[in-house]
Amino acid sequence: MITQYIMFSSTDIIWINDGRATKFSFKMLDWIVYMLGFHLVKSH
Fold first, then answer.
1. Using CA atoms in the order 32, 24, 19, 36, what is the torsion angle rounded to 10 degrees?
2. Amino acid 22: pLDDT
3. Which residues neighbour 9 within 8 Å (Cβ) at sequence distance 6 or greater?
4. d(CA 14, CA 40)
5. Rounded distance, CA 39 to CA 4, Å?
6. Biggest alpha carbon distance in the chain?
7. Which stretches of the chain score pLDDT less than 50?
8. Distance between CA atoms of 11 and 1, rounded to whole angstroms?
9. In the chain, where are the structural domains located?
10. Using CA atoms, how far apart are residues 21 and 43, in angstroms rounded to an integer?
11. Which among 44, 5, 3, 2 is positioned nearest to 26, based on CA atoms?
12. Cα–Cα distance between 11 and 35 in angstroms, integer?
């Protein structure tokens, strides 16, 4: 479970997940949010 996120520079997000840090790019994050939003809209 994701407990905290930290903005790191202008291109990356560091997710703090149970003590482990995982870095995602904004483009990847935006794509995930877009796909989730698309499925939510399509389900309605």
1. 0
2. 64
3. none
4. 26
5. 25
6. 37
7. 1-3, 7-10
8. 23
9. 4-43
10. 33
11. 5
12. 20
Both tokens assigned to 36: 């989730």
Amino acid at position 35, single letter? M
User: Residue by residue, what is the 3-state secondary structure of the chain?
Assistant: CCCEEEEECCCEEEEEECCEEEEEEHHHHHHHHHHHHHHHHHHC
Tokens 């990847």 belong to: 28
Count of positions (residues) in the chain: 44
Q: What is the pLDDT of residue 1?
A: 43
The residue behind tokens 């499925």 is 39
Residue identified by tokens 């935006």 is 30
